[in-house]
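User: Structure please.
Assistant: Input sequence and predicted structure:
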Amino acid sequence: MSFLAGGRVDAAAVRFRDSWSRLLRQGHGAAVSPGVLGPLVYRTAELLSRAHGEEPFDPAPAERAGALLVEAQFTDPVVLARAVELLQEWPASDGRGPALTGAFAAGWSAALRDRTLREQEAIRRAVDLARRDAERALYASETRFRAMFERAAIGIGFADLDGKLIAVNGALQEMFAATAEDMRGLNVESLVHPDDSAGVWENYHALVRGEREHFQCDKPYYRRDGEVIWTHLTVSLIRDEQGTPRYQVAMLEDITDQHRLQERLRHQATHDPLTGLPNRTAFFERLEALFDDPGPGARFGLCSLDLDGFKNINDSLGHDAGDQLLGAVADRLHSGVAPLGHLVARLGGDEFAVLMEGSQGPQEGIAVAQRVLGSLAPPFLIGDQQLVVRASMGVVEQPVAATTASAAMRSVDLTLYRAKKEGRGRWTLFDPQRNAVAVSQYAMSVRIPMALDRGEFFLDYQPLCALDDGAMVAVEALVRWRHPELGVLGPDEFITTAEDSGLIIPLGRWVLLHACEQAARWAARFGDAAPRMNVNLAVRQARNAGLIADIDRILRSSDLDPGRLQLEITESAMLGPRDPALQALHELVGMGVSLTVDDFGTGWSNLAYLRDLPVSGLKIDGSFVSELHASGEDPVGWRIIGGMVSLAHSLGLSVTTEGVETAADAQRLRAIGCDCAQGWYYGRPVRPGEITRRIVEAAGGTRADGEL
């Protein structure tokens, strides 16, 4: 275990080690021999030091340290509370302190819980043993059971199948601050608490019906004096000799202190200690949850706020004054926005954010921004000085389905930057076009070649499914950029820039290579059950003189059958009969590669070109389906789609429709003769392992760990 930092002794680590040793060597209610205690002190300090300093952060050592204490009988909550204080006093440079503390406490709590569960299981087995032995030694069994029942440290109660309490032990009476007479005859269903977790009573009713033998949960109760206690509840079913349910036995462990400690730790991990507002962690958890299962038409709003000139306040008045100002700003933000049901959080420094769930449109985001700036307009009294504070805000208001959590944060940050750039002390509404330009400009700053060298690109795969039976017949490779500063970027944020700059050639080559290698792995494992691989071919790629050589080399190196590769050409890239690149497309088809026209219906190409292009299918652009929903039932729109399907079939082409998000859409498309569909109804873009899982499930098998 090292306490050196940069060649020097880490004073904070040494202080922690000494305090930790003193804590464990003090009395805690159980005798521990020096031969055990010394290694325990060293081992737990070593684990905590590793979790504190190693990169990247791994909570497992801290969890193991907490578990080791319980194994050595350090179960006094006072020891845990003091240990948490010591960890909080040991500063971590990257802000991992709350996570480290939480991991340690979680390990301690889990180990204590496991020990308690073992004791409870032993009790349950003893009860069952007493029942089975009753015929052979009724008197002896009753004596042993009564001793165990009365002297048990945990609360035990027996009830009939109607829920009426028959007997309770002393520990349970003490737990509820009630006498045996108070509790006897009470129905357990009268002990419902508003904070009961979902499914508690469903599990209970299943048990008394004989559908399950036992269940466990953490459940609060009201005592007779009105106080609330938290318990770990285990309810077991007792059957007679014929297996008929007769009684139920409940065993309750009082975990009130542990619950309160966990609540405090949870609050500390998710709230900013200076302002009391939710912190960055809590904010992003709430934001990401918004995108997990959005309802149809759901919208959201996001405001990012930055105080103008806050650094000058810190430099001129000191950090104490700056902290006071941040606290006062947080109070005004919370009082002005929280009553409207919006989440206000401090992301760090002088950065704040507001999340509006269920927004009704851009005007609501604008109204919140105006309300926020209005609440900050009056001067702040800090010490004996009045400070006038101005703030800049970026505002994003969009449908949830139109973006992702990370993309929304990038958008609001860029919008905030634009607000500051355009004058400060103002709000600016997100402009999709200007945002796209900003992202593209940033992406063009020599990042794409570097990203290719550094392995920052990766591929997700979206299923294409047959409409007649829903089988996955192909997947489309979709490139993503794990940008070190902007997060994960979708193709819409950098492909146009790559095309304009010519960088689409090396990027497209990379996509083709990795997509073909993945397709070859699936083909080798699943044979004919493997999906075809669809890869987009940009305009510049289609006209690149080295296209044929590139694809031939990639197919050979990946050992992929050309028939398993289909290239998608956008309608804008459709080539006329005299286009010199048309010969290259014919050569590709001659190699066995198939071609399809992507985003069909969005361009102005001469449809007669379809007779000259060696394509085997069309993909109808998803905007046709989405616009039908936007305008309600539109029989004309469906007739347009039907006309395109008929046109394609008359030319001997298969048809895939994009943007299919509901079963009704799929049924309608199936009825008009469309062959395949692609969209969120059939699956979002996912990692290759998820596609593997779907292939295995379709075949009725089980995927081996680690195989793609």
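Confidence is low (pLDDT under 50) at residues 702-707.
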